[in-house]
């Protein structure tokens, strides 16, 4: 009989040691994420890293030309100028979102792939709702709320990425996944991704069942 608790303990321990493998594109996005937080990293260096990841480059330029960042109506097609226009916070959020999105592509089993797709759809819905609620109801920073929504299920994505090593692990609901195990694994992955402490705290509140309006 499969000892699910022992398996989850091992997966959580691996994550805590930083033993997490991302797809190639995810690794590049993670490099961008780290460069954003490096005080010695220049705009030119950051732009070169972003250009090496086409999906991220397209999103950065697209955001720079959005109504939010291009109120003067001057469209740009240069990654460096886009980086300077939207700033580090937006780039940090997008780079991390790319990593999470790439984790959806990791499962090799069609069944696991289906679970990952469903989890991504849920993640995208939560992120969109978080943005709207923050902007219209709670008056929190909507971009931060969206980012928190994007990363709140990273523990689940990591679990799916490891499931092939343990046949049958996802064939039935995992006991206590919404409790200690999700928190342990999710916390470790968030740390590897370098997610800001304020966002981690918000997700911790979710794991603990905190459903009230966020405090000021």
Write the layout of secondary structure elements.
Layout: H1 4-16, H2 24-36, H3 43-51, H4 54-64, H5 79-103, H6 110-138, H7 142-151, H8 154-162, H9 177-193, H10 197-207
Helix pairs in contact: 1-9, 2-3, 2-5, 3-5, 4-5, 5-7, 6-7, 6-8, 7-10, 8-9
The proportion of residues forming helix, as a percent range, comes to 55-70%
Gyration radius over CA: 18 Å
What letter string, H or E per element, gives the SSE order?
HHHHHHHHHH
Count the E strands: 0
Structural class: mainly alpha
User: How many strands, which pairing sense, and closed or not: the largest β-sheet?
Assistant: none
Report the end-to-end length measured between terminal Cα atoms.
Answer: 48 Å
Word description of this protein:
This protein is mainly alpha-helical. The protein is built from ten helices and no strands. It has helices at 4-16, 24-36, 43-51, 54-64, 79-103, 110-138, 142-151, 154-162, 177-193, 197-207. Helix 2 crosses helix 5 (79-103). The longest helix is centred in the middle third of the chain and has 29 residues, at 110-138. It starts with a helix and ends in a 9-residue tail after the last helix. Mean pLDDT is 83; it is low at 212-216.
């Amino acid at each position: 009989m499969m000892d699910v608790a022992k398996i989850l303990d091992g997966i959580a321990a691996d994550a805590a040691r930083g033993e997490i493998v991302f797809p190639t594109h995810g690794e590049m996005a993670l490099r961008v994420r780290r460069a954003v937080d490096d005080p010695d990293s220049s705009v030119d260096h950051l732009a070169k890293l972003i250009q090496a990841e086409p999906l991220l480059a397209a999103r950065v330029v697209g955001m720079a030309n959005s109504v939010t960042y291009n109120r003067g109506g001057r469209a740009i097609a240069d990654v460096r100028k886009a980086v300077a226009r939207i700033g580090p916070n937006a780039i940090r959020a997008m780079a991390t979102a790319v990593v999470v999105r790439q984790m959806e592509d990791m499962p090799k089993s069609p069944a696991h792939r289906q679970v990952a797709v469903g989890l991504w759809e849920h993640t995208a819905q939560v992120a969109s709702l978080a943005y709207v609620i923050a902007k219209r109801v709670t008056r929190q920073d909507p971009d931060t709320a969206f980012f928190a929504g994007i990363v709140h299920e990273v523990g689940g994505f990591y679990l799916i990425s490891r499931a092939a090593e343990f046949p049958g692990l996802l064939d039935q609901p995992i006991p206590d996944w919404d409790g200690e195990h999700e928190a342990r694994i999710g916390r470790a992955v968030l740390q590897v991704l370098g997610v800001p402490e304020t966002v981690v705290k918000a997700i911790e509140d979710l794991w603990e069942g905190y459903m009230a309006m966020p405090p000021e």
